[in-house]
């Protein structure tokens, strides 16, 4: 596996991988890799001739009081994991390569970026859309894979690809991979490292409460009543606060107040200890 951190080197290496019409899959990450990331890489390998993974802790998607400095960085360990999974190229740019002196462009996807995590983390999804658009232009992959754990991020990236007429990758080639969970049900996340053992046990209550809520909605319970019960259950499990717990239309993320079988997701963000955890499931 080659590890590259300069854009001119990346372009040459990508061109070499594409010789003979070989296809390339991109798996964008911020590192601190876990089984969820490795599931993306495995699926990418099954779908393309070569896999390129990126590791870049993107400062533009962290708010002023967020965990940019504390975010786990362990490039050597991550590189070994990616190499063992058969990744051809690791793109690990520096901040200066990604945002050179004078950088001034921002991509903002309105609507779908403004609710849920977008309301709680102003500017976060502009940072995500901007860096993902740059990664797409840098690598020009045939397909790109993202975890469904960040459902809103996936919806925003698809919206951006449609709106900007992207072709490398095309919006339909942006592939979501189901969330990988611990045996307890806790969705895997690089931020789970912030949890103590006791908090990790409590955090497992989130997915259990969400499954109850989904069962209730599917059995015809009122969405407002169900979400109120869900909030109470999440707090009873040991979370200190619930940022949001909403049922939303799967693509637009518009709020759903009456469920009639339309594509829908239950999305939750809640705080426990020093961590803000997010999770989502289909209704
Ligand atoms: O999901 C992530 O790890 C990041 O938001 C992404 C897509 C790599 C952009 O920085």
DSSP helical segment count: 9
- CATH fold group of the largest domain: Rossmann fold
Distance between the termini: 40 Å
Describe the oligomeric state of these chains in a short phrase: single chain
Please indicate the percent range of residues in DSSP E strands (runs of 2 or more). Answer: 15-25%
Major sheet size, sense and barrel closure: 6 strands, parallel
The small molecules bound here are: pantoate
Quantity of strands, as a count: 9
Low-confidence stretches: none
Overall mean confidence score, pLDDT: 97
Q: What is the 3D form?
A: globular
Number of domains: 2
Q: How are helices and strands ordered from N to C? A: EHEHEHEHHHEHEHHEEE
């Amino acid at each position: 596996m080659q590890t590259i951190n300069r854009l001119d080197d990346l372009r040459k290496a990508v061109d070499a991988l594409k010789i003979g019409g070989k296809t390339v899959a991109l798996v964008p990450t911020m590192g601190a890799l876990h089984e969820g990331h490795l599931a993306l890489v495995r699926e990418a390998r099954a779908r393309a001739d070569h896999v390129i993974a990126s590791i870049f802790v993107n400062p533009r998607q962290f708010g002023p009081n967020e965990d940019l400095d504390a975010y786990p960085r362990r490039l050597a360990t991550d590189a070994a994991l990616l190499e063992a999974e058969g990744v051809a190229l690791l793109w690990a740019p520096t901040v200066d390569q990604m945002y050179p002196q004078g950088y001034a462009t921002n991509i903002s996807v309105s609507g779908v970026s403004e609710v849920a995590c977008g309301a709680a983390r102003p500017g976060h999804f502009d940072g995500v859309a901007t860096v993902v658009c740059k990664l797409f232009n840098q690598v020009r992959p045939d397909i790109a894979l993202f975890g469904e754990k960040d459902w809103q991020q996936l919806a925003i990236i698809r919206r951006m690809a449609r709106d900007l007429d992207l072709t490398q990758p095309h919006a339909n080639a942006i592939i979501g991979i189901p969330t990988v969970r611990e045996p307890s049900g806790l969705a895997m996340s690089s931020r789970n490292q912030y949890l103590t053992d006791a908090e990790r046990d409590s955090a497992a209550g989130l997915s259990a409460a969400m499954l109850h809520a989904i069962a209730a909605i599917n059995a015809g319970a009122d969405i407002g009543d169900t979400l109120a019960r869900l909030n109470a259950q999440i707090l009873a499990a040991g979370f200190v606060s619930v940022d949001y717990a909403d049922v939303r239309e799967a693509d637009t993320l518009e709020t759903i107040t009456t469920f009639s079988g339309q594509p829908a997701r239950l999305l939750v963000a809640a705080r426990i200890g020093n961590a803000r955890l997010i999770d989502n499931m289909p209704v």
